[in-house]
Amino acid sequence: MGCEKVRTSEQRQMDQKSSERPSAVNMMVPEFSAAMTGDQEFHLSSYRGKNLVLYFYPKDNTPGCTTEGMQFRDLHPQFLQANTAVFGISRDSLRSHEGFKAKLGMPFELISDPDETLCIMFDVMKMKNMYGKKVRGIERSTFVIDGQGKLVKEWRGVKVPGHVDEVLDYVKGL
């Protein structure tokens, strides 16, 4: 067996279900608004003419989410040069987001989705195993919306290492 992980039939079924999810790439994203840090309201239509990166992450102040946030932070000037605005989204409260943003020195806003409206809209909620228990949570996912409001790229089940570089390379090509 080597280093390969043994996966249960239940895990394989969950993987299969997420891979069977219909893609919304090349479809227009409906207008939406949501509360975000900086005492602001996000409105999709406010970003016409700009590319958007919306990255969904499970929870503020956790190791993977902190690493991902720092990588988006560190490459933020290059995203701006590529006419791209970056926003992080999770179910955490605005208060939690404000602390997380300040702690990491993030130059972009975080969107709070406590009622899962955006999570459902982008179909990022899934059952996960955490410490042997099944929990419903956000599947780490990233979406690129072009300046006309069309979803042009999605990454689901994201692994953090190398991901932000891949997103940056993609938006540079738009």
What does this protein structure show overall?
- It is a single chain.
- With 174 residues, this protein is α/β, with parallel strands linked by helices.
- It has one domain (14-172): Glutaredoxin.
- The chain is built from 5 helices and 9 strands.
- It has helices at 9-19, 63-81, 94-104, 117-121, 163-172, and strands at residues 33-36, 40-43, 51-56, 84-90, 110-112, 125-130, 133-138, 141-145, 151-156.
- It has a 5-stranded mixed β-sheet with strand order 5-4-3-8-9.
- The radius of gyration is 16 Å and the shape is globular.
- The model is unreliable at 1-19 (pLDDT under 50).
| Strand order within the widest beta sheet | 5-4-3-8-9
How is the biggest beta sheet arranged?
Answer: 5 strands, mixed
CATH superfamily: Glutaredoxin
**Residues in β-strands, percent:** 25-35%
The sequence of SSEs as H and E is HEEEHEHEHEEEEH
CATH class: Alpha Beta
The tally of structural domains comes to 1
* Mean pLDDT metric: 89
Radius of gyration: 16 Å
Helix content: 25-40%
Helix count, per DSSP?
5
Tally of strands: 9
From the spread of the alpha carbons, the general shape counts as globular
Uncertain stretches of 5 or more adjacent residues: 1-19
CATH fold title = Glutaredoxin
First-last Cα distance? 42 Å
